[in-house]
Amino acid sequence: AVRWKTIPALAEEETGLLSRGVLFVLGIATFCALAFVILLGTSAPLLTRLSGNPSQVQTSFYGKTATPAALVLLVLSGLVPFVSWKAAAVRELLGNARRSLAVGTGVVILALALGARDLSSLAFLFLAGFAADMNLRAVLRKAKNGKLTGAGGYLAHVGVGIMLAGIVVSGVYTRSQRLTLVRDRPTKVGDKTLTFLRVVPGTATRKQAMEIRVETAAGKVGYAYPKMYVNTKTGQLMANPAIRRSAVLDDYISPQQYDPGQPERVGRDVALRKGTTTNVEGTGFTFREFNADRSAMLRGGKEILVLTDLTITPPDGGRHDVTLRYVYHMDGGEPEAPEIEILGRPGAFMKVEAVSPSDGSVVLRVRGLAKDPRSEFQAATRESLSVEVTKKPLINLVWAGFYVMMAGGLLALVKRAREARRAVFVAEASREKTSAPLPPAGRPVTAPGSSLPTEA
């Protein structure tokens, strides 16, 4: 916009639709429109905040808006190599594009043979194949004429075509399945069998990981180690997938949730905060205070005794103060918590299941209060890991296209640098020529290659 007045207008013979100047203008307009739409989408939380209800657009918004623009850009980049600055004839352009149209059709036929059926992705693949081949031919033409450094733009367009094809294939045809792996129990997923074996503890240089045995249909066995750990700085649960890469397919195993399992349990867990009362089947439990006795640690031991003071209010209206013991072992041993009878409720018992001094809470395990004892029984659960298994086909095309595009960009930079140095050299030579001093008028000088004086 700033340079609008200095941009030269297209000549009359350059204003045809199939001229390079018009295609450049259309490409720039498409890029600007796409950038504006993406700006709106990413700014949605800020814009909607003005109405008092901040919200963001769905991921599908970008797919619906970017897809048409990408299709237009593929068409334009495919046509540019075989149009000149003057308008080209449609028949001539079609003649030059026959091979590339055949290549695009071949890509679609291959995609259909591999199971692709989505019409928009097939159109994308056709245009990607067409654009990549049109520009590849331009690159080869430049190389044949000894002008490879002038093929940077065309090579970058080849990379864009390959990269967009990879984005479409790996995005549209990604397949994911979520399942729960019970420890030591093989589970079949597609053509593989997964078995969750154990948790690999973290070290100072390695994050905690989950060991999964992966067996293929051919009997080949391997091991995957997706990571699942708590970030010590933020306290958040972090998960990194295990990735197995190949030329045509990438397999991801992403951990979602880990369950350490629970033994068979009889009773009900009751969480209490300091100063609060909870009623369970007509009996009130009031958590008054807990105290930690660290005298054993001072004597060299590794135990902390926690005394929890409670007030029990049975249905008959009585009131009983009790103290529960909970021994925590610093060396990782199982806590010790003796079970005692609940006063005023014969046949009912309670014990401390867990304490949390940081937030002043305690968890009690009570049993025998329910009218139906079966309601207090909970069967044992096994250790398990929930994972999401994802297959991403041909994602290597994305990286291959990126590297080709960067190579084209590098060639263009080399060419522009040479042109800049040449322009500087020509400018300096011209300046030296025009600034050379002339002899005074009338003084005789000797012409080059002659001994005779000439008039200056």
Strand content: 25-35%
- Straight-line N-to-C gap: 52 Å
- Contiguous helical run count: 8
Helix content percent band: 25-40%
Radius of gyration: 38 Å
Counting DSSP E segments of at least 2 residues, the number of strands comes to: 22
Biggest sheet character: 4 strands, antiparallel
Summed over residues and divided by their number, the pLDDT gives a mean of 86
User: Order of helices and strands, N to C?
Assistant: HHHHHHEEEEEEEEEEEEEHEEEEEEEHEE
Shape: elongated
Unreliable runs? 449-456
Strand order of the largest sheet: 1-20-9-8
Helix/strand-derived class? alpha+beta
Task: Give a quick set of tags describing it.
456 residues; alpha+beta; four-stranded antiparallel β-sheet; elongated; disordered C terminus
What can be said about this structure in brief?
The protein is an alpha+beta fold and 456 residues long. The chain has eight helices and 22 strands. The strands form seven sheets. The chain has a four-stranded antiparallel sheet, covered by helices on one side. Strands 2-3-4-5 form a four-stranded antiparallel sheet, with no helix packed on it.
Task: Write the SSE topology.
Elements: H1 20-42, H2 44-49, H3 59-79, H4 90-113, H5 119-144, H6 152-172, E1 175-182, E2 187-189, E3 192-200, E4 209-216, E5 221-224, E6 227-230, E7 237-240, E8 242-245, E9 249-259, E10 265-266, E11 268-273, E12 277-280, E13 283-293, H7 295-298, E14 303-313, E15 320-329, E16 340-341, E17 349-356, E18 361-367, E19 377-378, E20 384-393, H8 396-435, E21 444-446, E22 453-455
Antiparallel strand pairs: 1-20, 2-3, 3-4, 4-5, 6-7, 8-9, 9-20, 10-19, 11-18, 12-13, 13-14, 14-15, 16-17, 17-18, 21-22
